[in-house]
Design a protein that fits this description.
The protein is of the alpha/beta class. 37% of the residues lie in helices and 16% in strands. The strands form three sheets. An eight-stranded parallel β-barrel has the order 1-2-3-4-9-10-11-13, surrounded by eight helices. A two-stranded antiparallel sheet has the order 5-6.
C-alpha cells in the first residue's frame, strides 16, 4: 500500500477535440482553428486540470483520411494559441527526438514556456512511424532510437542550462540586457550529435519546461528513470499498473533521484453515465460504428506487419499470427505487448482486439462506469500504488468530458483527493515538482 497522505490526484487531459468534429453539437465546427482548442482548454482550466496533453505523429495518409484520426495541428503551435487564452493550466506538447534537432526543440519548447509564463512541458518521444516524410532512410531500430534520444535530451537540457537563473538583467539605466559572465556556451560530442551553442532564451518563470516521456518498453522505462519528471504510461488494468508503478519508482531511485518527484500518469478513458446501465448504453452506441477495416490494419501494424485479412472478426486470432516475442519488433514494442495480452485472452476475438486498439489506443485503461463508480476506480488506483494521476481521454460522443467535470471531480474533491484551487501559477508548482 502506497501512502497518499498529503497528496492529491493529478490530471492531464488529452486535448484532441478535432477527433470529435462529427459529433459536435455546434453547427459549424472548424478542426483546424484555434477557437475549439481554446474553448476546451478554458473548460479544463475551470475544472483545475493540471495540464493539457497534445500527442503528435507523422502517419496521416489517404487511407485514414476518411476517419480524420491522425490529421492535427502542430502541438507547439497549437499550444502557443492556447497559452494566450489561459492562465494556470499546463501545456505539454509532444516533439520527436528521431525527426527533429535538439537546438530547434530546445528553443521552441522554452519559447512556449515563456509565452505561457512557466506552464510548458515537453513530452519526448522516439516516434515509431512516419520516416518517409523525412527521407529515404528506414526508421532506426527502437534501441537505436532511444540511444539517440538519450543524447538528444542531454543536449536540450544542456542548452537550457546555459543561462544562470539571474543572468537576465534588463537594466534600462545602463542598457545592459544580460550579464555575459552568467551566460555560457554548451558543447556536446557524442555518437549522434556534435554541437555547440547557447540558448537564445533565459530560464522561464518555472526554471525550465517540465520533462515528460511516453513509452513503457524496457528502453523507455530506463530512459524515463534517467530524464523524465513524469511519464505517460499505458496499463490495461490495475494489477499491470501497480507492477509498472513499482518498477518505475525503483528505477528512478536507482538513478539517485527522488521517486516522490517522479509522477506516473497512466492513460485512462471513461465512458460515464448517471448509472452503470446508462454508461453501458452509451458504450454500445460508441462501439456500434467503429471502423473495423481501419482497426484491422492498425493491429496488423502493431503485430509487426502480419496479415489478418483471412481472419473473421468473430474468430480468435490464430496463435501463429500473434508475435511470440514483442521485444524483437522494430517499432512499438510495449503497446504491442499489451495488445498481445488482449489477443491471447481466452474467448477474445479479432473484434475484441480491434475494439481495444480503436477505443483505448492499443492498451490504455478503459472502463464503463457510473459517476460514483468512476470516483471509486480513480481512488483505488491512486491509493494502492497504481498511479500518481491520470492522462484522461474520452470518446467524443455523449459529452463525456463535461460529465467528468460536473459529476466525478466534485466527488473526488469531497473525498479530499482533488484540489479546489491551483497551488501556483506554473506547471511545476501545480504538479508538486517545484524545488
Amino acid at each position: 500500500m502506497t501512502s497518499t497522505e498529503g497528496r492529491q490526484i493529478k490530471f492531464g487531459y488529452h486535448l484532441a477535440p478535432q477527433y470529435g468534429w462529427a459529433h459536435s453539437q455546434e453547427e459549424a465546427y472548424a478542426p483546424y482553428e484555434a477557437e475549439p482548442l481554446i474553448k476546451v482548454a478554458q473548460k479544463a482550466e475551470e475544472a483545475l486540470i493540471d495540464a493539457l496533453f497534445r500527442a503528435d505523429g507523422f502517419s496521416f495518409t489517404p487511407d485514414n483520411a476518411s476517419k480524420f484520426r491522425y490529421g492535427s495541428l502542430d502541438p507547439l503551435l497549437a499550444f502557443s494559441a492556447v497559452a494566450a487564452a489561459t492562465k494556470r493550466i499546463g501545456l505539454v506538447a509532444t516533439a520527436s527526438t528521431t525527426f527533429n534537432e535538439p537546438y530547434v526543440v530546445a528553443r521552441q519548447v522554452l519559447s512556449l514556456d515563456h509565452l505561457s509564463r512557466g506552464r510548458a512541458g515537453w513530452n519526448a518521444v522516439t516516434s515509431f512511424q512516419g520516416e518517409r516524410a523525412f527521407g529515404a532512410e528506414p526508421i532506426p531500430d527502437q534501441t537505436v532510437r532511444y540511444e539517440r534520444a538519450e543524447e538528444f535530451l542531454q543536449v536540450v537540457h544542456g542548452f537550457w542550462s546555459s543561462w544562470d537563473g539571474d543572468a537576465l538583467v534588463l537594466d534600462k539605466s545602463s542598457g545592459k540586457f544580460a550579464d555575459p559572465a552568467k551566460v555560457k556556451s554548451f558543447a556536446f560530442r557524442g555518437r549522434f550529435f556534435d554541437v555547440e551553442a547557447t540558448s537564445p532564451l533565459p530560464p522561464s518563470p518555472q526554471g525550465g519546461p517540465v520533462q515528460f516521456q511516453a513509452g513503457a518498453s524496457a528502453e523507455g522505462k530506463q530512459f524515463a528513470a534517467r530524464f523524465a519528471e513524469a511519464i505517460f504510461s499505458a496499463s490495461p488494468d490495475i494489477d499491470h499498473a501497480r507492477s509498472i508503478y513499482a518498477e518505475l519508482k525503483s528505477l528512478v531511485g536507482a538513478e539517485g533521484r527522488d521517486p516522490d518527484k517522479f509522477l506516473i500518469l497512466p492513460g485512462a478513458s471513461f465512458v460515464l453515465g448517471e448509472t452503470h446501465e446508462e454508461a453501458e448504453e452509451i458504450y454500445r452506441g460508441i462501439t456500434a460504428d467503429l471502423d473495423f477495416k481501419l482497426g484491422r490494419r492498425g493491429v496488423e501494424s502493431y503485430f509487426g506487419g502480419v496479415d489478418l485479412s483471412g481472419v473473421d472478426l468473430d474468430e480468435p486470432i490464430p496463435p501463429h499470427l500473434v508475435p511470440a516475442d514483442t521485444s524483437v519488433l522494430h517499432r512499438r514494442r510495449s503497446r504491442a505487448e499489451l495488445l498481445k495480452g488482449v489477443a491471447v485472452k481466452p474467448g477474445n476475438t479479432l473484434r475484441d482486439v480491434i475494439r481495444t486498439f480503436l477505443i483505448s489506443d492499443g492498451g490504455h485503461f478503459l472502463t464503463v462506469q457510473s459517476y460514483d463508480g468512476a470516483a471509486d476506480v480513480l481512488e483505488e488506483w491512486f491509493r494502492t500504488g497504481a498511479a500518481d494521476g491520470f492522462v484522461l481521454s474520452f470518446p467524443a460522443r455523449g459529452e463525456q468530458f463535461d460529465k467528468f467535470i460536473e459529476h466525478v471531480i466534485p466527488r473526488l474533491q469531497d473525498r479530499g483527493l482533488y484540489r479546489r484551487a491551483y497551488e501556483g501559477s506554473t506547471l511545476r508548482e501545480n504538479l508538486g515538482l517545484a524545488s
